[in-house]
Every structure is written in structure tokens, then in C-alpha cells.
Amino acid sequence: MGADWLLVFGAGLVGLCFGSFLNVCILRLPHDQSLLKPPSTCPQCKRRIEWRDNIPVLSWLLLKGKCRHCGKRISRQYPIIEALVGLVWASAVLWLGPTLHALAAAVLGTILLGIAITDARHYLIPDEFTWGGLVLGLLLSLGGGVPGFLQAVLGAGAGLALLSAVAVIGRWVFKEEAMGGGDIKMMAMVGSFVGWKGVLLTIFAGALLGTLIFVPLSFKKKKLVPFGVFLAVGAAVTFLFRDTVIDWYLRFIRGS
Ligand SMILES: [Zn+2]
């Protein structure tokens, strides 16, 4: 593939920083708190975290996972998310080179991770991830990224329309809210990155995963379905394998 390792490494570092920012988003957006103010503090002793203790992954390792002032544990979630996002950005450039397509892959991967975590934890998907992601998806497609602006608009429209329909039918059948507004906005965002065919594939993959994993669990204890988690996995699979899967499917229905 001949990827420039310096570029891959650089992308990884950028990803680590976005991972650090994603931690702030995951912590604050579900509670409608500002991302900028106040600056990061230790949740235990409320002391401000200095820049040297705020370096992605590294600071956590150097501090052995403890606050410099009060010595209380700092959750492992922080370095794990930072490392994951760093990995997403590095792999995107390794896989697609220094292209707009790679940037789209990295941005989408970061947002999907944020959505999956907030939905699993709080059963909500912040607008900053969905509407913000939609704007980024449309901008990237305008810049000549994949799938192209018209496809991105069609994809966003398809995501919005299809999940709204599912929500209406769900409310009618189950007499309760089966699909949240966050899922609908999320699919508009996903559509802008994968186009309308990708939307179909994402919903199919998400529903399949949700049924396989969640239905057996929910029979035991009646629980809310964090459908955004399954849609996020479906969207990632779609972004990676869309063309291959659609190709298989078309060959399958043509019987060749
Ligand atoms: Zn502390």
C-alpha cells in the first residue's frame, strides 16, 4: 500500500487529541453542559487538571491512573477512548491514504463511538453528534469526498424519512415510543456519509444485530433498547464494506 508511516503516525496523534475531546463530549453533552467551560477538573477533588496531566493516554499512564492531587482513581475509560480514536484516525490514513475519504472515515468513526457510548449509558444521542455530524458529512461530500454531495443529501433524506416511518409505525404497533428522535437524526447524519443505499444497509445491519443480541436479553428483563449502539455498528460496517455487500446482494438476486 506504501502508506507514509509519518502520516499514519501524525493521524494517530491527531486522533488522540480528538479522543480527548470526545471524552469531554461524552461526559458533558448528555447533561447539557458547555464543552469549553469550566476547564477539566478532577471529579473527586475538583482541582483543575493542568495541561501536563491532560496529555492523551500518556498522562494517565504516568500518573498510574490516579489524580495528582487527591490520589483518587481516574477512570480507565479516558485513556481507552483516547487510544481507540487514535487508532481509528491512524487506520483511516493507513487504509485510504491522506485523502478526504480517510478524513470522512475518521470523523464518522469518532462520532459513532461517541453516539454508541452516550446511547448505551444514558439512552440519548446528543444533537451535537447528529446535527453536527450531518453538517460535517455534507461539507466533506462538498469537498469532493465520498459519496459526493448529491448522494450525501439523498442519504440524509433517506435516513430521516425511513427512521421517521419506523418511529410512526412503531408507535402505532407498540403504543409507545419505540424509536427516539436521536435515532432519526443519527440516521440523517449517517446517510450523509454513506448515501441512500448505505442507509438501507445500515438499518438492515443494525436491526439484525439488535435482534440477535438484544431480543434474547430483553426477554429476561424488560429494558429500553439503545438502538443507536446497533445502528452505530451497522454504520461502521456499512462504511467499510458497503460496495462489497451491495455487489454480493445484486449478484445474489440476479442469481449469478
Ligand atoms: Zn483529584
The molecules bound to the chains, other than polymers, are: zinc ion
Seen as an oligomer or otherwise, the chain set is single chain
What is the first-to-last residue Cα distance? 31 Å
Give the CA-based shape: globular
Secondary structure category: mainly alpha
Q: What is the H-and-E element order?
A: HHHHHHHH
Report the strand count: 0
Radius of gyration: 20 Å
Name the helicity range.
over 70%
Proportion of residues in β-strands: under 5%
**Overall mean pLDDT:** 90
Q: Major sheet, described briefly?
A: none
Count of the domains: 2
H/I helix tally: 8
- List low-confidence stretches: none
What is the gist of this entry?
This protein has 256 residues and is an all-alpha fold. The protein contains eight helices and no strands. It folds into two domains: 1-98, no CATH class; 126-256, no CATH class.
Describe this structure in words.
This protein has 256 residues and is mainly α. It folds into 2 domains: 98 residues, no CATH class; 131 residues, no CATH class. 71% of the residues lie in helices and 0% in strands. It binds zinc ion. Zinc ion binds next to loops.
Question: In terms of topology, how is this protein built?
Answer:
Blueprint (H helix, E strand, L loop, with lengths): L4 H24 L29 H5 L14 H20 L3 H23 L4 H16 L6 H26 L6 H40 L6 H28 L2
The protein binds zinc ion (ZN).
Q: What are the defining features of this structure?
A:
2 domains, 8 helices, globular, binds zinc ion
